[in-house]
Amino acid sequence: MKPNLEIVAFDLDDTLTLSRAPLDEEMAELLCRLLAIKKVAVISGASFEQFKKQFIGRLTCVDLNLKNLLILPTSGASLYGYDGEWKQIYSHNLSEAERQKIFSAFDQVFKDTNFEMPEKIYGALVEDRGSQVTFSGLGSEAPLTLKTSWDPTHERRKKLAEALKKYLPDFAVSIGGATSIDVTKRGIDKAYGLQQLLGYAHLKPENLLYVGDALFPGGNDASVLGLGVEVASVGEPGLEDTKQLITSLL
After folding, report:
1. Quick check: 76 and 192 in contact, CB under 8 A?
2. Is the residue at 2 inside a domain?
3. Helix H or strand E encompassing 242
4. Rounded to the nearest 10 degrees, how much is the dihedral formed by the CA atoms of 165, 170, 175, 181?
5. Dihedral of CA 89/214/31/134: which sign?
6. Going by C-beta distance under 8 Å and a sequence separation of 6 or more, which residues neighbour residue 82?
C-alpha cells in the first residue's frame, strides 16, 4: 500500500454491499472507522436516492466523519459532499433527446439480439436516472436470489452492450452490478468521476486507492485502470475481501 494514500474509493454493489442490498452493520462500522482517518468515496451506477436508501442511511458515523465522505452516483456523472447536509457539487444530466435516443436503442437491441424478456419484471427494465439510463435484466427491484443466477458470467450483458455501442457511439456503455448495463454521456464514467473527485479534494492519482469487483474488460470499474491510481480487485461478491482490506488499512 502506498504510504501517501489519502483517499479510498469504493464501488458499491458487490464491493460494499450485495446488489441493491442494505449495507450490513459490520461494513458500516468499518467504514465509519476508516472515515475517521481517511477520505472515502463511493462511486456506483446507483442513483443518489438509491444511495440514501442502501448506503447513507445505514451509516452511524458522527457528522465530523461524514465530512470525509464523498458520493458519486450514476457512474460519476454527479458528485455529492456533506456539510451538515448532502449537497450536489456537480451533475451532468442527460437531455430529453439523449434519453429518448438511449431508450430507442435498447428497444432496437432487444429485437436485434432476440433478447428473451423475463416472465416477470421487478420494477423498471430500463430506468431513467437523470444523468444515466440503466438496464436491469430482471428489473430494478428484482430479488437478489434471482439476480445472482441471471448473468454470472456477464455473457448476456456483453452481447447487449456490444450491440448498444453500434447505436450509441456518442455514449459510454458499461456492465455493472449483478444484472445492469449503464449508459451515460461519452466520457462520463468512473474514471471521469475519480478525476473530478481528485480535483475537488486537491489530491493526485497516487493518493487514491480504488476498490471494485468489475475491473475486467467491459466492466464498469475498468475505466479507472488508466488513471495511475492503485487498484484492488475483490470477488463477485467481494464483501469479505473488502472488509479484510479496510481492516488492514485501519
Report:
1. yes
2. no
3. helix 239-249
4. -90
5. positive
6. 63, 66, 67, 69
For the record, the C-alpha cell of 241 comes out as 475481501
CATH code of the domain containing 131: 3.30.1240.20
C-alpha cell at 213: 469487483
How many domains would you assign to the chain? 2
Average pLDDT over residues 155-159: 95
Strand partners, 208: 7
What is the span of the domain harbouring residue 77? 7-92+188-249
Q: Is 222 helix (H, G, I), strand (E, B) or coil?
A: helix
Rounded CA-CA distance 233/10 in Å is 10
Q: Looking at the structure, do residues 147 and 192 belong to the same domain, yes or no?
A: no
3-class state of residue 247 by DSSP: helix
Q: Are 204 and 226 in contact (CB under 8 A)?
A: no
Whole-angstrom CA distances from 64 to 67, 183, 194 are 6, 35, 23
Q: Is the peptide bond before 237 cis (omega within 30 degrees of 0)?
A: yes
pLDDT digits (tens, 9 = 90+) for 117-153: 999 999 999 999 999 999 999 999 999 899 989 999 9
Q: Looking up cell 465530512, which residue turns up? A: 67
Question: Which of 111, 128, 120, 17 is closest to 77 using CA atoms?
Answer: 128
pLDDT band, very low/low/confident/very high, at 2 (cuts 50, 70, 90): low
C-alpha cell at 124: 423498471
Per-residue pLDDT of 48-60, as tens digits, reads: 999 999 999 999 8
Question: Any residues with CB less than 8 A from the CB of 149 and at least 6 apart, and which?
Answer: none
Sign of the Cα torsion 146, 147, 149, 155 reads positive
Distance CA 185, CA 169 (A): 10
